[in-house]
User: Which sequence fits this backbone?
């Protein structure tokens, strides 16, 4: 029996280091997963959106390099069990680190400071790694382990089975 070998699915985008890139990358990642027919629970999709937003926001906000772009990548493992997302920027890897939220003026909680804590809570794994020109921040997610067969494929298989199945007719036997 010969099977079809699965390959990793990967997509890379280079985007401008600007706040407008955050929703753009978030939408592209979710749209790409849909195009690849990766089905997952809504909660997981929401977690992926949140983590993508946090990682891209941090890169936009804290990249101190002269590089005007960010490189983002989404990869789905060959066995479709894991999703990997990364952002590369030009800042050395000593930044950022998770830190506690701080109180600001007038005893208001500051807006920043919790992003990587959210990433750590939602992602399966995450890390910061040095690259030749800066750093890579990545996160992974476990994808559902059920067979990932798109609904249209399931419907097609059912239709073929129905057509190929013999028609069975049941006749009532006469009673004595």
Assistant:
């Amino acid at each position: 029996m010969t099977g079809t070998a699965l390959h990793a699915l990967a997509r890379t985008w280079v985007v401008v280091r600007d706040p407008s890139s955050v929703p753009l990358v978030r939408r592209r990642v979710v749209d790409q997963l849909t195009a690849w027919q990766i089905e997952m629970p809504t909660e997981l999709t929401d977690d992926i959106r949140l983590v993508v937003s946090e990682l891209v926001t941090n890169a936009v906000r804290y990249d101190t390099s002269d590089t005007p772009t960010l490189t983002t990548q989404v990869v789905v493992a060959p066995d479709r069990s894991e999703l990997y997302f990364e952002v590369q920027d030009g800042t050395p890897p000593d930044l950022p680190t998770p830190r506690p939220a701080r109180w600001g003026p007038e005893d208001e909680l500051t807006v920043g400071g919790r992003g990587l804590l959210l990433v750590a809570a939602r992602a399966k794994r995450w890390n910061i790694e040095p690259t030749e020109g800066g750093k890579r921040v990545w996160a992974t997610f476990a994808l559902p382990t059920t067979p990932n067969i798109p609904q249209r494929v399931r419907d097609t298989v059912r239709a073929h089975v129905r057509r190929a199945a013999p028609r069975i007719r049941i006749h009532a036997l006469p009673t004595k």
